[in-house]
Amino acid sequence: MSTRPDLRLEKVTPATVDAALGLRVHPHQERNVSPVSHSLAEAYVHGDAAWPRLIFDGDRLVGFLMAFLDLPWNPEKDPADRRSGLWRLNIAADGQGKGYGRFAVEAVRDELRRRGEQKLYVTWEPGEDGPGAFYERLGFRTTGELSGGQTVGVLDI
After folding, report:
1. Residue 47's pLDDT is what?
2. What angle is formed at CA 139 by the lines to CA 66 and CA 36, rounded to 5 degrees?
Protein backbone atom coordinates (compact mmCIF):
# COMPACT_ATOMS: atom_id res chain seq x y z
CA MET A 1 0.00 0.00 0.00
CA SER A 2 1.00 3.63 -0.28
CA THR A 3 3.79 5.01 1.87
CA ARG A 4 1.85 8.26 2.27
CA PRO A 5 0.66 8.13 5.89
CA ASP A 6 -1.96 10.87 5.45
CA LEU A 7 -3.95 8.81 2.93
CA ARG A 8 -6.69 6.67 4.41
CA LEU A 9 -10.09 5.16 3.73
CA GLU A 10 -13.11 5.81 5.91
CA LYS A 11 -16.66 4.53 5.92
CA VAL A 12 -19.35 6.95 4.82
CA THR A 13 -21.06 8.21 7.98
CA PRO A 14 -23.79 10.71 8.82
CA ALA A 15 -20.99 13.22 9.48
CA THR A 16 -19.38 12.72 6.05
CA VAL A 17 -22.28 11.91 3.72
CA ASP A 18 -22.88 15.53 2.64
CA ALA A 19 -19.21 15.98 1.74
CA ALA A 20 -19.33 12.67 -0.14
CA LEU A 21 -22.40 13.78 -2.11
CA GLY A 22 -20.63 17.03 -3.02
CA LEU A 23 -17.58 15.29 -4.51
CA ARG A 24 -17.15 16.17 -8.20
CA VAL A 25 -14.83 14.74 -10.83
CA HIS A 26 -13.54 16.75 -13.82
CA PRO A 27 -16.46 17.71 -16.07
CA HIS A 28 -15.00 15.70 -18.99
CA GLN A 29 -15.01 12.59 -16.74
CA GLU A 30 -18.64 12.84 -15.68
CA ARG A 31 -19.79 10.61 -18.54
CA ASN A 32 -17.34 7.91 -17.41
CA VAL A 33 -18.40 7.47 -13.79
CA SER A 34 -21.64 7.66 -11.85
CA PRO A 35 -21.97 10.32 -9.18
CA VAL A 36 -21.44 9.33 -5.56
CA SER A 37 -25.20 9.61 -4.89
CA HIS A 38 -25.88 6.87 -7.45
CA SER A 39 -23.14 4.67 -5.96
CA LEU A 40 -24.48 5.08 -2.42
CA ALA A 41 -27.96 4.11 -3.60
CA GLU A 42 -26.49 0.98 -5.19
CA ALA A 43 -24.54 0.25 -2.01
CA TYR A 44 -27.78 0.45 -0.04
CA VAL A 45 -29.59 -2.10 -2.21
CA HIS A 46 -26.60 -4.46 -2.50
CA GLY A 47 -25.90 -4.56 1.25
CA ASP A 48 -22.77 -6.44 2.24
CA ALA A 49 -21.77 -7.01 -1.39
CA ALA A 50 -20.93 -3.28 -1.70
CA TRP A 51 -17.94 -1.74 0.07
CA PRO A 52 -18.14 2.08 -0.23
CA ARG A 53 -15.30 4.15 1.22
CA LEU A 54 -14.18 7.76 1.23
CA ILE A 55 -10.56 8.63 0.45
CA PHE A 56 -9.00 11.24 2.70
CA ASP A 57 -5.66 13.02 2.49
CA GLY A 58 -5.29 14.30 6.02
CA ASP A 59 -8.60 15.98 6.78
CA ARG A 60 -9.42 16.63 3.12
CA LEU A 61 -11.86 14.42 1.22
CA VAL A 62 -10.22 13.66 -2.13
CA GLY A 63 -12.21 10.75 -3.48
CA PHE A 64 -14.71 7.95 -3.24
CA LEU A 65 -14.44 4.29 -4.12
CA MET A 66 -16.78 1.38 -3.99
CA ALA A 67 -15.75 -2.23 -4.27
CA PHE A 68 -18.03 -5.15 -5.04
CA LEU A 69 -17.60 -8.34 -3.06
CA ASP A 70 -18.49 -11.80 -4.35
CA LEU A 71 -21.21 -10.65 -6.75
CA PRO A 72 -22.76 -12.95 -9.35
CA TRP A 73 -21.14 -11.73 -12.58
CA ASN A 74 -23.54 -13.04 -15.22
CA PRO A 75 -25.97 -15.36 -13.42
CA GLU A 76 -27.95 -16.23 -16.56
CA LYS A 77 -24.81 -17.44 -18.33
CA ASP A 78 -22.90 -18.95 -15.37
CA PRO A 79 -24.51 -18.86 -11.89
CA ALA A 80 -21.24 -20.02 -10.29
CA ASP A 81 -19.20 -17.08 -11.68
CA ARG A 82 -18.86 -14.71 -8.73
CA ARG A 83 -16.39 -11.85 -8.78
CA SER A 84 -14.99 -9.06 -6.63
CA GLY A 85 -13.40 -5.81 -7.66
CA LEU A 86 -13.54 -2.06 -8.01
CA TRP A 87 -17.02 -0.87 -8.85
CA ARG A 88 -16.57 2.91 -8.72
CA LEU A 89 -13.71 5.36 -8.42
CA ASN A 90 -14.35 9.09 -8.20
CA ILE A 91 -11.35 11.36 -7.59
CA ALA A 92 -12.10 15.04 -6.93
CA ALA A 93 -11.35 17.32 -9.89
CA ASP A 94 -8.62 19.14 -7.95
CA GLY A 95 -7.10 15.86 -6.75
CA GLN A 96 -6.30 14.36 -10.14
CA GLY A 97 -2.72 13.26 -10.81
CA LYS A 98 -1.70 13.12 -7.14
CA GLY A 99 -1.69 9.35 -6.64
CA TYR A 100 -5.15 9.09 -5.07
CA GLY A 101 -6.46 6.76 -7.76
CA ARG A 102 -3.48 4.44 -7.39
CA PHE A 103 -3.97 4.49 -3.61
CA ALA A 104 -7.64 3.56 -4.06
CA VAL A 105 -6.88 0.61 -6.34
CA GLU A 106 -4.16 -0.62 -3.97
CA ALA A 107 -6.55 -0.32 -1.01
CA VAL A 108 -9.19 -2.42 -2.79
CA ARG A 109 -6.52 -4.92 -3.82
CA ASP A 110 -5.36 -5.22 -0.21
CA GLU A 111 -8.92 -5.64 1.08
CA LEU A 112 -9.66 -8.35 -1.48
CA ARG A 113 -6.42 -10.17 -0.61
CA ARG A 114 -7.41 -10.01 3.05
CA ARG A 115 -10.70 -11.66 2.09
CA GLY A 116 -8.88 -14.43 0.20
CA GLU A 117 -9.59 -13.25 -3.35
CA GLN A 118 -7.06 -13.86 -6.12
CA LYS A 119 -8.38 -11.47 -8.79
CA LEU A 120 -9.55 -7.86 -8.82
CA TYR A 121 -11.99 -6.91 -11.58
CA VAL A 122 -12.85 -3.46 -12.86
CA THR A 123 -14.92 -2.07 -15.71
CA TRP A 124 -14.44 1.19 -17.54
CA GLU A 125 -15.92 3.27 -20.30
CA PRO A 126 -13.87 2.69 -23.44
CA GLY A 127 -12.53 5.62 -25.40
CA GLU A 128 -9.94 8.33 -25.37
CA ASP A 129 -11.33 10.13 -22.29
CA GLY A 130 -11.93 6.88 -20.39
CA PRO A 131 -9.71 5.54 -17.61
CA GLY A 132 -8.46 2.49 -19.52
CA ALA A 133 -4.86 3.71 -19.76
CA PHE A 134 -4.83 4.39 -16.00
CA TYR A 135 -5.94 0.84 -15.19
CA GLU A 136 -3.55 -0.69 -17.70
CA ARG A 137 -0.63 1.24 -16.12
CA LEU A 138 -1.59 -0.40 -12.82
CA GLY A 139 -1.33 -3.85 -14.37
CA PHE A 140 -4.92 -4.61 -15.36
CA ARG A 141 -5.41 -6.57 -18.56
CA THR A 142 -8.59 -6.64 -20.57
CA THR A 143 -10.55 -9.88 -20.48
CA GLY A 144 -12.25 -9.44 -23.85
CA GLU A 145 -15.61 -9.18 -22.10
CA LEU A 146 -18.01 -6.27 -21.99
CA SER A 147 -20.28 -5.51 -19.07
CA GLY A 148 -23.01 -3.01 -19.76
CA GLY A 149 -20.98 -1.74 -22.72
CA GLN A 150 -17.91 -1.23 -20.53
CA THR A 151 -14.52 -2.88 -20.97
CA VAL A 152 -13.74 -5.50 -18.31
CA GLY A 153 -10.25 -5.63 -16.83
CA VAL A 154 -8.67 -7.99 -14.33
CA LEU A 155 -5.62 -7.83 -12.09
CA ASP A 156 -4.10 -10.92 -10.48
CA ILE A 157 -3.59 -10.17 -6.81
Report:
1. 94
2. 20
